Amino acid sequence: MLLLVTASLYGCKTTGLLEGSAGTATATEDEALIEAEAEAEPAMPPAFEIREYFLPAETIKGDDEAIKTEIREAAEKAAGEDCNSLFLKPGDLPSVNFDPLEYAIEAAHQNDLKLFVVIDLLELRPWSQDLPLPELKKRVREEAGTYVINYNIDGMAFGLPADPDETSPINDTALYDLLEDVMAWAMLRKPYLMNAVRDGGDETRILNLAGDGGEKIPTVSEWFKQIRPRQVVGLDFSGYFRGPPAGREIYLEDEGRTKICGSDGFIGIIADPADTLRLRSTESDIKLSTRGWNVPYNYTVLPDNTVARPKPWMEFRRMPEAYTNKPDYDLLCKTDYPARVSIDGEEVKHYKTGIFFKSIKLKEGPNRIRATVVSDDSLSTFYEQEYFYEKTDNIRKPFPLWIDARSLEPAYDLELLPGDVIRVAFAGSLGQVANMRIQPGDHTFRCSREDYEDYSLYRADVPGNKFSPGVRYRLSLQLQPLTEQQWHESYELETGRHFMVREAEDFPLVKVKNENTRVTYNLGAPRLGGPLRAEVGPGVVYKTNGRFGNYYRVRLSNEEHGFLHSDDVELLTAGTVKSSYYITSMACSPSANADVLSIPYLEPVPWEIHPDPAGKRISIHLYGVQTSSTWVSHYAGLKIIDMITWEQITPETYKIHVNLKTSDIWGYDFSVREGRLVLRLKYPPVFDPSSDKPMSGLKIAIEAGHGGSNTGAMGLSGLPEKDINLDLSFRLGELCRQMGAEVVQVRESDIDMSLEEKRDKAIRSGSDMLISIHANAGGSGYLSVDGTSTYWHNPFWAPLAIAIYDRLLELDLDEFGVVGSFNYTVTRVSQMPSVLVEQAFMSHAEDEEKLADPDFRQQMAEKICQGIIDYLKNASADL
């Protein structure tokens, strides 16, 4: 923040305005959304109009009590004259038996005044006019630091000569540079500080430190930008140059101006934030990426053009918004481990990852929160931020009437059958009368109402047979006051939603065009997609009977349907005949490495495959197929298949049961080959779990989750999930090799790979097992959700997930469970036992501390390896 103050006067004077920080309530996209806004942003504090009262030193005389009285009365007088700021020169305060500046700060704050210390650049020391600029910059920072570090001041006012070019050894540009350094240094400790310039001449001048991009000298203006923490950068070049850094020039390319290094190598920059700082020195061009930086932006520039934190250092990693309506927040900080750390004077635990945190409670108005670090060599630093909390009433009033357009269901346009029912639901004003209107035809349907704390949920079911086929109808909503005595206007919202009723024969056929096209039971959307019915490849033909936004509903039988995305299919021409055929015979026989079931596939009908380990079978559903099955051949030598049975469960649904001799299978593949559906059940690999190398004969694929530009979850300390996944994958791979296995690392380095690429690589490798390594994240608070977990998609692989999980629980980790029906693409395979391991939670301080420890990751790798061996022993016993 930069503030202008004119020459000192007795009494109160209005001298400038301090604007609130950037950001206002965001305009919503439509009127309904504006009216439905539930949690209003806290009102921004108004622009701070400086009305200062200068406390002259010559009036502060007498003994301790007299001086206290003078200071206290000055503060009371300032408040009584409608001033809001008290200005004083600490250097002019008398030497007494108490700290007069501390007393003045308390008196100012008790009277709701801001306290500014005045630093006169020409009166600091007799040597100030004789020092070169680099040394002067350091000395002024030291002088300002006395007040910034030791006192709870609100701002600094710098006294300037009337004409710097004649009375000062530095010109306007150098003066600008000096002040920017001092203010930046101060705001790297206390970013809320206000900074003023007191000009000794008659002209009022503003230093627009926030900059407009190209100005090299101070500018004259009645307004200035508030300086936010991410606009303030401190760079230390003390170790960058071959010689002393004092006086070295650093050109700021984006600002179009030059900075001069102080005698200690420091420069301060106040400018709009950017992803990259582009600098130029006499040594080289310097480009510093600010991505991943956390406030304060205080860094040492190294000779290789990278940066490091100066020691000691600390940063705020997660913090409230500067203006918030939330009364509490878990403030997260970080520094080098080990150190003594505290927040608001309370010592807190310092984790080995460097993080420390505390739940802070905010009072209404401004709150100054300080985090302090004392390193193991007794050096200290701090960062103190101010947060403005405004308590807001989040209870939404019913009037004027409102509708939350974001809550509207359906959320897309529809095409439906006459027998369908259209469910409409929305949230709106509490306790009113709601109608749904459909046009053309002016159809009106009364909505039911369910009341909650400050809103009602309105619903209506509309039969499709009420509307003429082929007509495009539009939907609007209407709220009316419950009683006429309320005297409020009704409210109507045009939703922009449309629907059309069509006869079944008018819906088209579609043909799948993409590999691994997902067919879901419904349009529910949990974390990894809706509940899967099937994944099919190109060529399969479906009959549609509905359109829900970008999804087609497809008919499987009179009783079953599914959904697939329009991007995965192509429309077939009108008149195309729906696929169907009769099955007459099937055959199963052994081959060199698998039992094989061959099923006629005479037309591209939809199919699904359902694993059922509890029933020791695999079921295959064919839709549009009828039986003429009089011949099911079973050849001698079958090792896994026991018997093939079938049933016609509906006139259009043919179901094949592949009954197995054991549920401990090692994978199966189902594919279309030259007019036949072929199911291959792999024979078990040859291994001896009782040998010294129990994995000999096995090929194990290990997938390190994420990679490259996809970091995965980011730990509280900034630890990327992709890195620990890769490290543990290598550790596990080495252990498996020692146990005799051939290992395939699906992601061998920090590279980008799509999930489909990872899955395909594992399948093509012919591996016997796939282990996917990840780390979890979630929950609120830094000590909430934790624990280890394993996941399976295919229920045949649940025993492998359980075996690994049981071993992981031998470590110092809580339970998060074994999770089934998990839709992660990489482990959504049937060709081999495939499971996913979520090591622990990156978002939990204790878990992350463990995950960051290489020794603990080695222990996890050992437990996963032991879990695999346990699975092999159980599988071998059952074969």
Low-confidence stretches: 1-11, 15-40, 201-225
Distance between the termini: 75 Å
Q: Which word captures the global form? A: globular
Helix tally? 11
> How large is the radius of gyration?
36 Å
Total strands: the figure is 54
Overall helicity: 10-25%
Q: Kindly name the structural category.
A: alpha+beta
Strand content of the residues, in percent? Answer: 35-45%
Mean pLDDT value: 89
Most strands sheet: 10 strands, mixed
Q: Could you explain how this protein is built, in words?
A:
With 879 residues, the protein is of the alpha+beta class. It is built from eleven helices and 54 strands. The strands form eleven sheets. Strands 25, 27, 28, 31, 32, 33, 36, 37, 38 and 39 form a ten-stranded mixed sheet that branches. A seven-stranded mixed sheet has the order 1-7-6-5-4-3-2. A six-stranded mixed sheet has the order 50-49-51-54-52-53. Helix 9 (798-808) crosses helix 11 (854-878). The chain is globular, with a radius of gyration of 36 Å.
Describe this protein with a few key phrases.
16% helix, 54 strands, 879 residues, 10-stranded mixed sheet, alpha+beta, 7-stranded mixed sheet, globular, disordered N terminus
In brief, what are we looking at here?
16% of the residues lie in helices and 37% in strands. It has eleven helices and 54 strands. The longest helix has 25 residues, at 854-878.
